[in-house]
Structures are given as C-alpha cells and as structure tokens.
Amino acid sequence: MSRPLRVAALALSLSSLVSVSFTVACSKPAEGTPAAAAEPVELAAPANVKRVDIAVNDSGFSPSTIELKKGEPVVLRFTRTTKSECLKAIAIPDLKIEKDLPLNTPVEVAVTPEKEGKMVLQCWMAMIKATINVVAS
Fold first, then answer.
1. What does the pLDDT read at residue 33?
2. How big is the CA angle at 79 (ends 64 and 45), to the nearest 5 degrees?
3. For 118, which of 5, 14, 23, 100 is 20 to 30 Å away at the CA?
C-alpha cells in the first residue's frame, strides 16, 4: 500500500472512531433502559422529632454545647454561613457521622444518642469543636 493510501486509510479509520465516540456519548438510553440514577434524596425526619438549630459561622458552632436525652431521636439542623474551608463539613466521631455543609443551606442530621456522657461535634479537620451532652431521659 502506497504512503498516500495508508494516510487516507488512517484518516478514515480515525474519523469513524471520532464519530462513534460522539454518537455513544450523545445518545439517549433506549426505551426500557433506566437512565443514570440521580443523587439520593434525603428524607426529612417526622415533624414530631425535636430539632436543634446549630449555626456554623466564623466563631464556630452556636450553641457550642448541646444537651440531648439518651434514647430520644433528635435532628441537628446545621446552617453554615462562613466561607471557612475548615467548617465545610462536620463530624461526630462517637456516632460515626460525617456530613458536608454547603454554604447557606440547612442540613439535617438525625441522631439518637444511646449512651450518657459527652460527645464531640467537630469540623472535618478536628480544629473547631462543640460538646454534645447526653443525659438520662
């Protein structure tokens, strides 16, 4: 095969590869084929569950001490108003909870403490902390 023919054959095969990749990327799923799953929707806790609002700002967590009752379900509602990267997520290590906090968006975290005592609520970097006191019900 002469050089011009090889170049033409290579160009033709590359152009068919490019058109195939665009066709696959832009095609919609066939009927009966499920589309890509959307982000999971977090269900709200029942209305009768106690809610505690926690502001997350340049000063840290407010209130900085939260009292909860052992065995009582509660929703901690965090609203971050600071752009601080340190406070972009929280953790409650004793409950194995980690949660992102988008700016100016309330985020609800349902908890049911099972042990009396103190737990730490902290930023994801463990630099800014608050205390959760769990008392007998």
1. 39
2. 100
3. 100
